[in-house]
Design a protein that fits this description.
- With about 280 residues, the chain is mostly helical.
- Helix content is about 65%, strand content about 5%.
- The chain contains 14 helices and three strands.
- The protein has helices spanning about 15-30, 45-55, 70-80, 85-110, 120-135, 140-150, 155-160, 165-175, 180-195, 195-210, 215-225, 230-240, 245-255, 265-280; strands at about 35, 40-45, 60.
- It has a three-stranded mixed β-sheet.
- The protein is globular, with a radius of gyration of 25 Å.
């Protein structure tokens, strides 16, 4: 039976993971049906293959919704533990699909007679936003970096998708050299040393004989995978020990009612009590 193109967005299980699935199906039967769409398997390729190996008759169910792509992404995100970097790479593929669909709609609205229609920047932006939201609301800046890695260094994109390298390090390596052999040498060193983004820049500078430039605050925040608000709170935490009473109280009031990210509100409360205690002595 053929696999639907959307099902192939995610890699097949191999090795020990697949063997474990086969054994589970052999012992417990198929617990979740294999879903079909347009007479092809859209979700459940691994379950179908495991049934074949285990000698178990698979159960099929027809997908009847109106968003097959969203269905595939949702089902796989529930069962797979993808890293933020892998989600960025997945979002780039979804962006390509959404952009292609948007281009088809644009052509239809302008008349089928038009060929070579260039998709508008607004529609491209919408495709990127939709893709980022589809994989759980990752940062669009990370999606942009992942897209750049795919364009400049496909071999590094494969490493990121396989979970062997974070997107931040891959991005730095991808734009460091046009020579694949050089990029591979740097990537190998980064993986061996488990280098951070800053460490990757140092390795690149050493390899190419260049003076490295430190990451900007914005780059650090984007590559950290946390929101701008969380980044701001994290920076706020560093200033709490030296805050005056008025500043501490204003900061506390600003974040009251929000998630106590990394215990920041508790730290402010302790600082305020400490300062008030000092005033009473």
């Amino acid at each position: 039976m053929k696999f639907h193109k959307y099902a192939e967005l995610f890699p097949l299980l191999e090795g020990d993971e697949f063997d474990a699935l086969v054994e589970d199906v052999r012992e417990n039967g198929l617990l979740e049906p294999v879903f079909l769409y347009e007479k092809q398997i859209i979700d459940g390729r691994n379950r179908f293959r495991a049934c074949e190996v285990a000698g178990v008759e698979p159960e099929f169910r027809e997908y009847s919704g109106d968003d097959p792509l969203g269905f595939v992404v949702s089902m796989n995100l529930k069962r797979r533990h993808l890293s933020p970097s892998q989600l960025y790479m997945l979002a780039t593929t979804l962006e390509e699909i959404y952009a292609k669909e948007a281009k088809e709609r644009q052509r239809a609205s302008e008349g089928r007679g038009k060929k070579g229609t260039t998709i508008s920047s607004d529609l491209l932006g919408e495709a990127r936003t939709k893709a980022a939201q589809a994989v759980g609301g990752v940062w669009e800046a990370g999606v942009t970096k992942a897209k750049r890695v795919k364009e400049l260094a496909p071999e590094l994109a494969e490493e990121v998708w396989a979970g062997r390298m974070p997107i931040g390090q891959a991005y730095e390596i991808a734009r460091s050299s046009e020579q694949e052999s050089v990029r591979r040498d740097i990537a190998k060193k980064v993986q061996e040393e488990h280098a951070t983004v800053a460490g990757t820049r140092s390795l690149i500078a050493h390899k190419l004989g260049k003076v490295e430039s430190p990451p900007t605050a914005r780059e650090q925040r984007e590559l950290s995978g946390i929101s701008a608000w969380q980044w701001g709170v994290r920076e706020l935490r560093a200033t709490i020990p030296t805050m005056e009473l008025g500043a501490a109280e204003r900061a506390r009031n600003d974040i009251l009612g929000t998630d106590d990210y990394e215990g920041t509100l508790s730290m402010l409360e302790r600082r305020i009590q400490e300062l008030k205690g000092g005033d009473n002595r």
